[in-house]
């Protein structure tokens, strides 16, 4: 896999992928659609797409975003069925997603939960690359960049069309680089570590005695009591945790109060500052 770092961009096999989910946070929410397109030698050579049945019904807000209804996924296969096919599809290709940390967080949790080893594929983020290589756009959301660059639109917030849009954006980013640019240089331009191991939750399960209790509380939607803050005088917190996010800028749990204000947004509590339970 190390040899691929010196490969020219035209010689890469690339899989652009996207997830649609039942909510914002891994562990507490599920992937409900997974799709990808495979590119090689200047053309798309394969497609993958599947709806996935979540553990619980989705709420109206998330349905309004991706327009995947509970009826659409009621008879869909579970992740246990879909994941092996997806892992086979990506093979050893270089992966790309828009806001890749979001997708990696969900996929890494399911991969480990179902007993698979995390992939070794190199991962690119078209959002991070666009911030470096594309100027003048109002923002760097995928659909904004699709409009700004006049790329193929498709059906926004559906995984297959977003995978195609992400691939188009990546190729546009590549076109702005020198002809002898390598994958290693592209990864340096991102400025973030997007290796799969960075999104492993097993790391915390093995190194922090309280982590398994945290995962159980999320799945059971029960309160999680923990000590948080400085090493000398940490404060006790009692929260409902909605999910775990491994993020290049700091891993955190997203929590609300046991009797939350319906309008309140989840608050971040960084894992590095949890002192015990």
Which helices and strands appear, and what pairs or packs with what?
Elements: E1 14-21, E2 31-40, E3 43-51, H1 60-66, H2 70-73, H3 79-90, E4 94-97, H4 100-113, E5 123-125, H5 126-133, H6 142-149, H7 159-175, H8 183-190, H9 202-207, H10 211-220, E6 223-228, E7 235-245, E8 252-256, E9 267-270, E10 274-276
Parallel strand pairs: 1-4, 4-5
Antiparallel strand pairs: 1-2, 2-3, 6-7, 6-10, 7-8, 8-9
Would you give an account of this structure?
The chain is α+β, with helices and mostly antiparallel strands and 277 residues long. It folds into two domains: 2-199, Nucleotidyltransferase, domain 5 (2-Layer Sandwich), CATH 3.30.420; 204-276, SH3 type barrels (Roll). The protein has helices spanning 60-66, 70-73, 79-90, 100-113, 126-133, 142-149, 159-175, 183-190, 202-207, 211-220, and strands spanning 14-21, 31-40, 43-51, 94-97, 123-125, 223-228, 235-245, 252-256, 267-270, 274-276. The strands form two sheets. Strands 3-2-1-4-5 form a five-stranded mixed β-sheet. A five-stranded antiparallel β-sheet has the order 9-8-7-6-10, with helices on one face. α5 runs parallel beside α7. The radius of gyration is 19 Å and the shape is globular. The termini are far apart. The mean pLDDT is 95.
């Amino acid at each position: 896999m190390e040899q691929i770092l010196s490969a020219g961009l035209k010689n890469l096999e690339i899989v652009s992928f996207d997830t649609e989910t039942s909510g914002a946070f891994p562990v507490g929410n599920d992937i409900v659609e997974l799709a990808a397109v495979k590119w090689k030698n200047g053309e798309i050579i394969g497609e993958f797409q599947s709806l996935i049945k979540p553990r619980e019904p989705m709420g109206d807000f998330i349905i309004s975003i991706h327009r995947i209804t509970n009826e659409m996924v009621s008879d869909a296969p579970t992740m246990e069925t879909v994941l092996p096919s997806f892992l086979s599809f990506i093979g050893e290709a270089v992966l790309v997603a828009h806001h890749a940390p979001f997708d990696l967080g969900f996929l890494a949790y399911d991969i480990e939960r179902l007993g698979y080893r995390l992939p070794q594929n190199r991962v690119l983020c078209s959002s991070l690359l666009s911030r470096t290589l594309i100027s003048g756009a109002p923002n760097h959301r995928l659909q904004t960049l699709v409009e700004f660059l006049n790329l193929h639109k498709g059906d926004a917030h559906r995984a297959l069309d977003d995978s195609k849009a992400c691939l188009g954006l990546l190729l546009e980013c590549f076109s702005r680089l020198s002809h002898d640019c390598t994958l290693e240089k592209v990864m340096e331009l991102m400025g973030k570590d997007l290796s799969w191991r960075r999104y492993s939750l097993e790391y915390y399960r093995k190194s922090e005695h309280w982590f398994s209790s945290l995962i159980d509380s999320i799945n059971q939607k029960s309160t999680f009591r923990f000590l948080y803050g400085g090493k000398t005088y940490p404060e006790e917190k009692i929260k409902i945790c909605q999910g775990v996010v491994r993020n290049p800028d700091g891993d955190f749990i997203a929590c609300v109060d046991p009797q939350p204000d319906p309008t309140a947004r989840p608050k971040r509590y960084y894992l590095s500052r949890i002192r015990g339970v």
